[in-house]
Design goal:
Helix content: over 70%
Oligomer: single chain
Largest sheet: none
Number of strands: 0
Distance between the termini: 75 Å
Radius of gyration: 32 Å
Order of helices and strands: HHHH
Length: about 120
Amino acid sequence: MADADLDVVIRQLARQLHTGLMTRAKERRDRFNGLAAKAKGKDTSTRFKMMAKATMEQATAAARRLQMSADNVADSYARSMRLVASTPVPEKAEKAAAKEKPVKEKPAKAKKAKAKAKKAK
């Protein structure tokens, strides 16, 4: 995994999160369905069944959003890496910039002191 591109790693992590999320959602759904089976009244049983159904719907929607976000991020990363890899490196500009000497400026305090000295004369 050390040599893997990060877009592959992003997609792999998203799959792991998706699997974990759906596993937990199914466990919770099963718990609510078990409570619905044990419920004494019809209203309580119906409420637990609705909660089980809503749990799966919400988890499915969250997993879909998670997967779409991960795909977008992985695609964006892969696109930017391809773009960087395809741009040529300008060698002459770098050498010319290295040869130029930086211009030294005097500190602002020294300029002010000279201006005051001139005014005093």
